[in-house]
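task queued by scheduler; priority normal; single chain, no ligands, no partner chains; default sampling; output format set to structure tokens
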Amino acid sequence: MRPTPLARALRTVAIILVLIAFMAPIAWIAATAFKTPRDVYALRLFFDPTLENFRAAAGAPYFLGSRTLNSLVVTGLTLILSLPIATLAAYAFSRFRLPGGAIWPMGVLATQFIPPVIVIIPLFIAFRTAGLLDTRIALVIANMSFVVPYAIWMIKGFIDAIPPDMEEAAQIDGASRLRVLWDVVVPMALPGIATAAIFCFVVSWNEFFYALVLSRNEAVTLQVGLMSARTERGDAWEIMAAIGLTIMLPMLLLSGFVQRYFVKGLTAGAVR
């Protein structure tokens, strides 16, 4: 049954309203990043754009460049270290019978229900004792504490769907277990690994709480640096918008590049 013209019109209006609701805050931040303080507080729709906010954010006390580098390094190292560990652990949970049975994968899942405010106390003490406070390494380890369990469970679902017969055939041909994992399992589970990588990137890039507690000066990330836009005249909305736009830009670029593969990974995991 075809929808009536009225139903199609209502659906179009609903889609437009949803798009406006989602895009309006992003458009407001993007516009504010190029406004002068006078234009910001005047709430003008038409204004002369300026790059002065980004030039100001690059210097003290905002240090946009170094904090962007910190965020990129911490997020990149988190992905590089987390994905191999999560893939190996997911394969072990999927293919081997471990002592205790399902208690191990369930224990990994249970870590996702622990409030970060509880975990941050022992992490802070451990990093302070080891002299790792205000370092990128500390932030990478903290990010891995909640990224790796999530990635394990996501990748495990894809590995469970791979027939073991293919691995047995490769082992009969003389391939070792690691060679089977690399040549057989990883290519077939690649949509799941890519999907886990996307989620891990988003979570790690947007992480705020651990970075706030564990960094002071040298390892401050963009998300924590956003707080420095509170000045003696109040919130510097134009500087805050410039930093916020810098935070959003990698996410927008990532969504444009991986949208097709992201949907493919989710649907592949649903139908296997």
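post-processing summary
- The radius of gyration is 23 Å.
- The chain is about 75% helix and 0% strand.
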